[in-house]
Amino acid sequence: MANASLFDKILIANRGEIACRVIATCRRLGIATVAVYSDADRDARHVRLADEAIRIGPAPAADSYLRGEAILAAARDSGAQAIHPGYGFLSENAGFAEACAAAGLVFIGPPAQAIRAMGDKSAAKALMQRAGVPLTPGYHGDAQDPALLRSRADAIGYPVLIKASAGGGGKGMRRVEAGAEFAGALASCQREALNAFGNAHVLVEKYVERPRHIEVQVFGDRHGNVVHLFERDCSVQRRHQKVLEEAPAPGMTAERRQAMGRAAVEAARAVGYVGAGTVEFIVGPAGDFYFMEMNTRLQVEHPVTELITGTDLVEWQLRVAAGQPLPLRQEQLHIAGHAIEARLYAEDADRDFLPSTGTLRHLRFPPQDAHVRVDTGVEQGDAISPFYDPMIAKLIVWDQDRDAALRRLRAALAQVEAIGVTTNAAFLWRLAGTASFSVPMLDTALIEREQDALRPDDVDEPILWSIAAAVLSARQRRSATADPNDPYSPWLASDDWRIGARAMRRIEIEGDAGQREFAVAGCGGHWRIENAGVARQVELRWHGDDLAATVDDRRVTLRGLWDGEALILQRDARPHRFARHDRSGEAGDRHADTGSLVAPMPGRIVALLVEPGTRVVRGQPLLVMEAMKMEHTLTAPVDGLLDAFLVRDGEQVTEGTNLLVFKSD
Known about the structure:
25% of the residues lie in helices and 33% in strands. It is α+β, with helices and mostly antiparallel strands. Strand 4, helix 5 (94-102) and strand 5 (106-107) form a beta-alpha-beta unit. Helix 5 runs antiparallel to helix 6 and helix 13 runs antiparallel to helix 14. The longest helix has 17 residues, at 254-270. The radius of gyration is 28 Å and the shape is globular. It starts with a helix and ends with a strand.
């Protein structure tokens, strides 16, 4: 092997930003890379970056990225010596790790027995108990009778947490507040766990009130060395999915850091761990901590650890897998500064975070430097499909202390531009500015607690509409009879020039908040805008895509972007879309029939919750869809009588598909 015992060629059995990250590290080390791709990823960024790429199947993950035999065949045909599994898919599949070894390939991850030991949460709890690692009170047994599980939950005391034993990433997990909710939550957990992991086994634990989620990065080699690279705080979560992560954990004392690090190393040693892993703890308000689970892979949030320790954990993975010792000993590892990561997703925060699909017609991230890093698997022109996780990028910032890093995070989020899908950038910007996160006062209920602060602020809505009216008026079509070579021709003017005086024009604009009519008169960059009896003076100055607008005596600066004829004004990471109103389409019905329900996104029907002929009330759950690896419950839009379902359990549907009909009251 070349590169001081490293590999000559590696196959990456994953997609998205982690595949791109592994490719970048391999390129720096002079290692050739092989990408695999599904039909949906034929033109994906990781495919374009790799030295070669091999198709492994159709778009659904079960037919491509989860087909171990297809990936092994691709490795054999390409001459790869090792397989990097990334995270997700087959990264924690013990059978796949064993199949790699049987095929003479190096699996860049822990031994199969370590994956198997930690992959079953119930067995892992028992193992950790023997190793002396603190555990949360709960039931971790094999018996899965619903009545037994309910009785154990009653004995533990509510609230409890139901968790998929083979799960991760917040899937197959529900908080239950009372016994009456247990049966429904259990069924949903088991269904989601079976779909995601092929295993419906669950465990039940006491829910720690106001818990923090703190995890410790561990690394082991084949020479018996195990170290920890300190902790990450991942408490800021939505539906058990991490949203913001940071390192080091705010408020962590030296004594607690040492105790948690020691417990994490002991957990790794207990299973003979090799490679990158994460030991996750639930931490109570008093600082007491309990083992939750071990992720036997690299984590999505690993960049914050890299930035505070000055390491490349992917390179560490490659070196350890090649048989080399860990690059650093425990006493050589130190914390420098503070790092925060935000997960940028294609999802609509104003529609209960529904995933958003489409083509990224425009995509721009903040410039990268020593303080800002962007890990992404997409570029402008790429598509966000319904088949995989809707992450667009990870935005990571670093500075000398937390306050400085937080300022950089909000500034970087404000520079994210995406057209073609809805993103959570504005939600992240508001979240990073909440009192709870700024103080910080962290726990897993932070987002729920800060709901008021996380709602969009529309205080400047009239000003934005006035600016949009001025900009859209300035973009009016010029006369087709004008001479384009005559710079002084009045017919080329777009400022409402008339002989003798300016004229007021009527313009109708559609925006996120509906439709409005304006009277507009303009000359150069100066405009008079009238709406609903209120007149405003608007002055516009463009500097590239930056628009400096003065409305009366107030000056605001925003980004002004064009999506065809539509104008997007972006302020504080939040895009506001405006377009001229076209009356030609008014004859048709623009609204869905209130007696029907349509699919808000592409997905698969996993449960029909009521029988046809049942009376339903507004907000009552009717069916469950699975989309982008999460379950979404759709409810009745009005009171009425459910007439019929138009779909079957297990059916794949596209966005806009009529799902059912009912007679409204």
